[in-house]
Design brief:
Protein name: Secreted protein
Number of strands: 0
Keywords: Signal
Number of helices: 6
Number of domains: 2
Structural class: mainly alpha
Shape: globular
Organism: Streptomyces buecherae
Length: 92
């Protein structure tokens, strides 16, 4: 699409290129507790009921909810850095 727009020339072509560029830079979908769980699985943690509860705790995205998530995950043996990342992935 970009190549075709450049051949057309004029203001329409420039607008087409700008719009096409903006579409490719659109933000990804909202994070969810499932993203937290997937991250932890990919780092070789067992994702059971308590991990799911911990990831769900961060879903609202508030500072307190993320802290609760991190503390719970750390209590379950998740490394601090991994808990921080996982809880961030869980929040909206």
């Amino acid at each position: 699409m970009k190549e075709l727009a450049l051949r057309m020339g004029g203001p329409l072509a420039a607008a087409t290129v700008v719009v096409a560029g903006m579409l490719t830079m659109a933000p990804s979908a909202q994070a969810t507790p499932a993203d937290c769980e997937t991250f932890l699985r990919s780092h070789h943690y067992v994702v059971g009921k308590m991990v799911k509860v911990s990831c769900k705790a961060a879903e609202s995205g508030t500072g307190l909810s993320k802290t609760v998530c991190k503390v719970k995950l750390k209590e379950l043996g998740v490394k601090s850095r991994d808990a921080d990342t996982a809880c961030g992935l869980s929040s909206r």
